């Protein structure tokens, strides 16, 4: 692709950004919100969070949403993905509805619509209500019932104006973080529970989709998955197999049931062989089979490179998916020097072509893509604007590949950056900044648009660059 080439996108392409409740709202202990696992974990172990910053205040969207939405409009957004905090709306996870929370989400949705920004609403972004975690969270089937009830409540309250719904964001991440690799509460390393959590989460997604259709809602409902392509080191059959297994664990585990209504055979075979089949009822598989998604959100940050295992695993170590592959550090890979993640723009094209060829070219959009940078303040110029040319470059290079996928027939409908304004990134807290808009924590959360925000505005207005 040459520099002078132009990249025009369809007129109705969705330009915007994405965010989540716990990472942006703040007001974690106000107006009747219940605790979620993040509030609880931070209270217990603040040292696990960067600079000991917890979720209590985050980016104050709860108080500033009108101003923030005005800025979104200014930056050319025609759509924005947010999430509802389950523990704000239903503080104990089940039971009483928090009227103040309903009022807040009604106002946010109204404000977006008045500003010509379509709300895309996600129901679950890593933030399990603590009362449900106390009974086991997704390990316990009762949480699936509670979630369906929560989903029905959201459809009833907001379905009249919200026409794009998502059941989960990156459902594999709480499995990895909470039950395999120790970066979410409850910090377990227990593959059996991990599989149960994965199954119940998938079931909850299908049950919410079933409820949405039973309630005769007239929008679209989908799921947001972090599809990280697994690239094998080489074409050696052992490397290729390692790549296929990593793909089955981390991508196809949710992609196949969400889009095709069935789990990948390769994954089922491993779980059977290793003795990790989850508890389920026969009818669950029917619910999953008949309630696939209308629309798929794709989050893409970095590729996963793998190779065949170098050594026999320790037979006494806890079982982890990594028993089947090793990570591969490819010489010469391009890095985000500020964050330490590989940048591989073509990955987004590979995902879209895979969806086109193997998943019925399902309607989809890039629901997250972005570049986290530590210490971004050093790029602020005399006018106070963060000169984030690296982010512009990052977005541009990904958009070029998305453009190519469209030309080849991909059904991709939009691009949302992670994220609108700098926010609280779980255990990384405010370490890495991702926003179009900077949030100055020293100055009571003052917002300033970064160079990338102004650039994106033009791209959205001109339908390309
Ligand atoms: C995505 C999540 O995985 O990546 C976001 O949906 C998250 O919630 C984002 O903040 C960036 O990752 P990190 O680890 O740098 O915060």
UniProtKB/TrEMBL annotation:
Entry EC number(s): 3.2.1.86
UniProt cross-references to PANTHER family, sorted A to Z: 6-PHOSPHO-BETA-GLUCOSIDASE GMUD (PTHR10353:SF139), GLYCOSYL HYDROLASE (PTHR10353)
Record family assignment: Belongs to the glycosyl hydrolase 1 family.
The keyword Hydrolase belongs to this UniProt entry's keyword annotation: yes
Lineage top rank: taxon: Bacteria
One GO CC term on file: cytosol
Species annotation: Bacillus inaquosorum KCTC 13429
Record's catalysed reaction(s): 6-phospho-beta-D-glucosyl-(1->4)-D-glucose + H2O = D-glucose 6-phosphate + D-glucose
Alphabetical list of Pfam families matching this protein: Glyco_hydro_1
UniProt cross-references to PROSITE patterns, sorted A to Z: GLYCOSYL_HYDROL_F1_1
Protein name from the UniProt record: 6-phospho-beta-glucosidase
Lineage, opening ranks: Bacteria, Bacillati, Bacillota, Bacilli, Bacillales
GO biological process, one term: carbohydrate catabolic process
MF (Gene Ontology): 6-phospho-beta-glucosidase activity
EC supergroup of this enzyme: hydrolase
InterPro entries with a match to the protein in the record: GH (IPR017853), Glyco_hydro_1 (IPR001360), Glyco_hydro_1_AS (IPR018120)
Keywords: Glycosidase, Hydrolase
Active site: 368
Gene3D superfamilies, alphabetized: Glycosidases
